Amino acid sequence: MKPIDFDGLFDEKVAQFMKESKKKRSAKAWEDVIPKLYQQFGDTYVAKIKCTPKQYYAGMSDETLVETLSAHVEQGISVPEFLLCELEKRELTERLLPLLTTGNGELASYAVRLLGDDPRAFEGYFALLQSEADAEVKEQVVALLNECADEVKEQALALYQSGKEEESALEILSHVTVRDEEVYAALLSAFSDSEEWQLTLRARYLATYGDERALPHLFRKIGDESIGFVEFQELKYAIEALGGEYDEQRDFSSDKDYLRVEAAKEKAREEK
Fold first, then answer.
1. Residue 260 Cα to chain centre, angstroms
2. How confident is the model over 88-119, as pLDDT tens digits?
3. Alpha-carbon distance 62 to 40, whole Å?
4. H-only helix segments in the chain
5. Per-residue DSSP letter, 204
6. What contacts 124, CB < 8 A, 6 or more positions away?
7. For residue 97, what are the β-bridge partners?
8. Is the C or the N end of the chain the one with fewer CB within 10 Å?
9. Which residues, at least 6 apart from 57, have a Cβ–Cβ distance to it below 8 Å?
10. Is the dihedral angle over the CA atoms 79, 81, 86, 92 positive or is it negative?
């Protein structure tokens, strides 16, 4: 199946329009005009298919729509917004779920966008997090599940306890809004057992979760003079986010991250 490259056709029409246009527009002005032209193109009759792009997709069966999306991605042909809009109009959860596990990151990303916060997709999302999927797709899934953290709390706890994708699980758990001892214990345990490279993230999880019982643990960690400038700043932010204060001064004059930040500040001052 060779899908129609509507975006390519549109680009050709725009290029011709820009060439023939008598109005002189700046690059910024064209950026504002082109999205409007694209929407108009969706309702423009295309002789090759004897209908408009929107009508073309509206006339497809559910199965053909999903197959067309797959064909676009697999053949490296730009996916038109008109196709995605038609997919979004329909109830296609069962047909879209398999796209999460094809091993194709771009296809999985489109599936996540289309499935959204449908609870029927949650199991697939957690399976994807434990797969070899691209980091970008996993980030997309985590961002979505953050908004549904209360609903997926048990699955996130199970993911954390499995030892797989700990950071993803902890980030989701940090967005749980209903206070839960098991969630708090997981976030605190992870913070207490942090390696240096994990400390900033796990301090932020505690800040996001918002349980002030974490303050003594944050104070204890920020008092450790072996921590670096970045870790110190993140711990201070977490303490303040939970309603605490920390005013102790620390000498970071030999810390490479501190020196980098100060150099950037100095450069910004010079450029003003």
1. 28
2. 999 999 999 999 999 999 999 999 999 999 99
3. 25
4. 6-20, 27-41, 53-58, 62-74, 81-89, 93-96, 105-115, 122-129, 135-146, 153-162, 166-174, 181-192, 196-209, 215-222, 229-241, 256-271
5. H
6. 97, 100, 101, 115
7. none
8. C
9. 65, 68, 82, 83, 85, 86
10. positive
Polymer length of the chain: 272
| Tokens (6 digits) for 139 | 């980030």
Encode pLDDT of 120-167 as tens digits.
Answer: 999 999 999 999 999 999 999 999 999 999 999 999 999 999 998 999
CB 30 within 8 A of CB 14: no
C-alpha dihedral, 177 to 178 to 182 to 187, nearest 10°: 20
Q: Among 73, 133, 76, which Cα is nearest to 103's?
A: 133
Residue type, 187: L
CA 48 to chain centre: 37
Dihedral sign for Cα 148, 149, 153, 159, please: positive
Cα 110 to Cα 129: distance, rounded to the nearest angstrom:
16
User: 183: Cβ–Cβ under 8 A, 6 or more apart, which residues?
Assistant: 153, 157, 173, 176, 209
CB 250 within 8 A of CB 232: yes
Task: Output the six-digit token pair for 152.
Answer: 């997926």
Residue with tokens 């700046």: 26
Q: Confirm whether pTM is higher than 0.85.
A: yes
